[in-house]
Design a protein that fits this description.
heterodimer; A: 208 residues; mainly alpha; 11 helices; B: 197 residues; alpha+beta; three-stranded antiparallel beta sheet; 7 strands; 32% helix
């Protein structure tokens, strides 16, 4: 009998853990006021129904709560994120991972056109676009002109740059900018250096 | 309880045997042998269970079903935890926002570092801890560095540091996330996902 009670007790304790490990649900919005939580949850439900990742929406709301943003601002931020996620999913393809879509949404929100996302996907139909999208958004955030940043990442991807190369490019551009080089010049200069270091750059054409 | 039954049985057999006065020496030897090892064979536990002795017979169907259900739940829980929290086998470079990781499927232990010599309290917040300022306080190290190691799932994550409870700071060693509508810049970390060409 005691054993039965123990087993039942374990089941009671374990079940919520299993559920919590699997899903991020309405309960995560408990830190918001009820009206804001309701509005955010409705947007998340819409996103889920359309195959758009909804966890980033809940996390945006929680971020706003931690930053003590008012409810209407939180809902506006969530709406904006939802629009960006939906657009990124459309540009990158429905098969893209939630992380890729989130990174794509970040790039769109920093001003990158959807066309650039679609072209990146064409260049890497199977490989992950996570790092290229993060680097692209970072460059634009650091005031590299959108056209320059887009061209740079597309070009780097075309000549066979790996994720590590892109991350190095980003770090060097950042370093140059801190030294006073203009963002566009830093990007073009470092891109040239990257092209020279890649063995595939000479044979892929159009890179020099 | 079973031990008491055994002893009672042995006592009765012994009395019966003594009452008979004499007996077959072989039967006496068998009886004494049985009495000597009797209690040992009834010891509850895995060995007795394995021998197919009375252990299972004393269980009701409800008990057996309950245990089976418990085992199922335990297995499921173990599987989920195994998948979600595979041993954190790699640590990102100190101070680096971008964690180098050879696999894209395992949770990684990422070490966050912020140099803030004058701070008295620093926490790291991000989508990996649901932006909870109380979830991940950082530890002060020599030279004014603050560190925290957190298991992070593969993917893109946004985060920031909170210094002394109210000052939000982006990681100077990581890419910046785009403006998020709240007026405070975050940083981005990519865990895994560096396998592509």
């Amino acid at each position: 009998m005691r054993l039965c009670a123990l087993v039942v007790g374990l089941m009671v304790v374990a079940a919520p853990l299993v559920v919590r490990a699997e899903t991020m649900g309405r309960h995560t919005l408990d830190r918001l006021d009820p009206a804001t939580a309701e509005a955010v949850w409705n947007i998340a439900e819409t996103a889920r129904a359309q195959g758009v990742p909804f966890e980033p929406l809940l996390l945006t709301a929680l971020e706003g709560a931690s930053k003590h943003a008012p409810g209407e601002r939180i809902v506006a931020a969530v709406r904006e994120r939802y629009a960006a996620l939906a657009a990124a999913r459309e540009a990158l393809g429905a098969e893209s991972t939630p992380s890729e879509i989130a990174a794509g949404a970040g790039a769109l929100m920093s001003g990158v056109p959807t066309d650039t996302l679609a072209r990146l996907r064409q260049q890497r139909p199977k490989g992950s676009l996570l790092v290229p999208l993060v680097v692209l958004a970072d460059l634009v955030t650091r005031r590299v002109p959108v056209e320059t940043a887009s061209s740079a990442v597309l070009h780097a991807s075309r000549i066979g740059a790996k994720d590590a190369d892109l991350l190095r490019l980003r770090a060097r551009v950042e370093s140059d900018i801190k030294k006073g080089v203009s963002p566009a010049a830093a990007t073009l200069s470092r891109l040239q250096g990257l092209g020279a270091s890649l063995p595939g750059a000479m044979t892929t054409g159009g890179s020099r | 309880m079973e031990h008491d039954d055994d002893r009672e049985l042995a006592r009765r057999v012994a009395e019966t045997y003594r009452a008979a006065g004499t007996g077959d020496p072989e039967a006496k030897a068998r009886l004494m042998s049985r009495l000597r090892r009797g209690p040992e064979s009834r010891r509850p536990g895995f060995v007795a269970w394995n021998r197919g002795e009375r252990m299972m017979g004393s269980w009701s169907p409800v008990s057996a079903l309950t245990v089976a259900a418990g085992l199922l739940v335990g297995t499921a829980l173990g599987w989920v935890l195994h998948e979600r929290l595979k041993p954190a086998t790699a640590t990102a470079p100190l101070g680096a926002g971008m964690a180098e990781a050879p696999s894209t499927h395992e949770v990684r232990l990422v070490q966050f570092v912020l140099t803030a010599p004058k701070a008295s309290h620093v926490t790291v917040v991000g989508d990996f801890n649901e932006w909870d300022p109380a979830a991940t306080p950082m530890a002060r190290r020599d030279g004014g560095a603050w560190t925290a190691a957190i298991p992070v799932a593969p993917g893109r994550h946004v985060y920031a540091f909170i210094v002394d409870g109210d000052r939000w700071v982006a990681d100077p060693a990581a890419p910046l996330a785009p403006e998020d509508g709240f007026g405070i810049r975050n940083s981005v970390i990519v865990v895994g996902g560096q396998e592509s060409t």
